[in-house]
Amino acid sequence: MDINFSTFSPELLFSMISGKLSSAISRRLYRVFREEGVELTPEQWTVMYYLWTCDGVTQQELCNQTFKDKPSMTRLIDHLEHLNCVNRIPSKSDRRINIIKLTDKGRALEAVTKPVVMNVLQEALQPLSQDDIEVACRVLMCIFDNLRNSLEEK
Hints:
This protein has helices at 10-35, 42-53, 59-66, 70-82, 104-125, 130-153; strands at 57-58, 86-90, 98-102. The protein is mainly alpha-helical and 154 residues long. The chain has one domain (22-153): Arc Repressor Mutant, subunit A (Orthogonal Bundle), CATH 1.10.10. A hairpin with a 7-residue loop joins strand 2 and strand 3 (98-102).
């Protein structure tokens, strides 16, 4: 299917999908986290969120799930370890592999940060109807799946 770019600005669409929206949410979350005394960055929160749903995974799995490269993930885990939120545990089967486990402090942050994030999302989505949000989610998931599939093919 050919897209008729004359009906909208591809530059605007690209800038929204590629970073403006993500940057705006990150900046807002960063500010609210600081106001609430939470020491995490939005990027670190993304890693923590995955660990809250699936504790005890490899660094590679965290890279795959968050679309971060290995050096970025290593830095994120270094900082989370410094904050005493996670521990690296060498794999019993392969000592080159680290398993990332939540600490008690890391687990406790879930109850503190999830409501903060939900409030920011609520603020961002405030004027939209449920139908609008569902359509936007379907569209964004389709775009994401297309790109993820093209990356896996290479």
